[in-house]
Amino acid sequence: MEIMIKVQGKEQPETLTSINNLAITYRSQGRWKEADELLMQAMEIMKKVLGKEHPYTLTSMANLASTYRNQGRWKETEELEIQTMEIRKKVLGKEHPDTLTSINNLACTYRIQGRWKEAEELLIQAMEIMKKVLGKKHPQTLNSMVNFAFLLKDQGGATEAISLIERCFQLQKQVLGPGHHATEASLKALREWEGKGKEPDQKLSS
User: Fold this and answer.
1) What is the pTM of this model?
2) Exposed/middle/buried for 115, CB within 10 Å: 0-12, 13-18, 19+?
């Protein structure tokens, strides 16, 4: 990456992609400070070169928000996610898959903080639009249903949560295949919620 910066400059799309990819690698390794610095650098350059409303800029904002969320930096996460969501609504429209992903991400941030009402409103909104625009069996729709099942479980609605996660699992098995990571995650949650395993990890979906 250093050679690319020296030869092409920081503002070239290829360089920004490399910076972003390295940041994602750092994030996956839990190297938060390095990931934060690179993602912030890439985001600011993209805002300057491409503009605040460019898809690449919005993706970089979403990536930085995800890094903040993984660190429990809720205020910064929420601010970036709301900003990204509102710009995507304006530029892409409410029914665009990227906009729906932003709505889903913000809902997950609320859910993890125990802000059930706000999370529920957003998840229902995203889920209904996805069913209408993408179809009931689209992977993104199924992902939103899984997140809603986790929300139900968090609020003590075990019976409803189990019923929904089982429906999601069956659809994912049909659409994605039994070996897909999302299908396996739903099966794991189903077994655990039915008392056949340990308490499930928190669902974090992007």
Assistant:
1) 0.80
2) middle
